[in-house]
Amino acid sequence: MKNLLGLLSVIVLFSGCGASLEKAAYKGDVVRLQALLAGGADPDSRNSYNKQTPLHVAALYSQHDAARLLIEKGADVNANHLGNGKCTPLHIAVTNGDSAMARLLLEKGADPDPAAAGDCGLARQRVGIGVQPAYTPLELAQKRGNESLVSMLRSAISRRYGVVPGSARNADEYGPIVTSLLKAYSGGGKTIAVAGFSYADGRASADGDIVSERFSTELINRGTLRVVERKEIEKILGELKLHNAGGISPESAKKVGRLLGADLLVIGGMVELPGKVLELNIRLASVESGEAVSAVTGRVQKDWVN
For 167-301, CATH number? Predict the structure, then answer.
């Protein structure tokens, strides 16, 4: 059945205008590609089926030599897929876990941090591969746990922009902390709530809210657990008069978690260090028992203005 589906997708894909160029890209037939391009074929031609370019096809089917030739002949390395979403060849390479293709695209000028793409429809032509909506290449790499691609994209973003912007910066700081916290947890919980972060000395500050938001964002980007919305958490904590995360006891953790419908609760303490650095001491509590099932310590930069 899978073979039949694959055959049907190829038949549909290569019917219509530009079929010869796309077919050569799909097969990695560099000799045929060279002949077609020399004869005046447009390297950025789009098919009538789903408006993808030959470079999208080469990236989808991991045809590195074909992709290299298309780029050398003027193919737009940042072309958006026009059928659905904003999928670029880099999105496809990362979705496929193809580090060699991603490296080639980046070396040839691909934007390492393009707009988040919806489901561009390309990946479904290969059985078992799908693209989740609204993810950048970096977020896709993180979602799939591909650390080599994550490192490659972060470096490329930093080199291109001089800073690590938005989601990349958040992932770079909070990603390893979240990974360590969840790595030690082997239970079957499916829903997690970030109860909050508070200073160990008890002072009132909005810093804990910012850290909680960034921690929640990283959990959401992982896509492995359902994350309770912050407004729901703040409402429950207010009703229980728990305004300081450090004051959440095992019994309180069970009560908060049950009211939120959560299986796991993240509770964090903060210590401010020199150089605008925050040390985070985090524990992951089981709502069923109220006891900590994992604990980690990490540091993040305090790069906001109160």
Answer: 3.40.50.10610
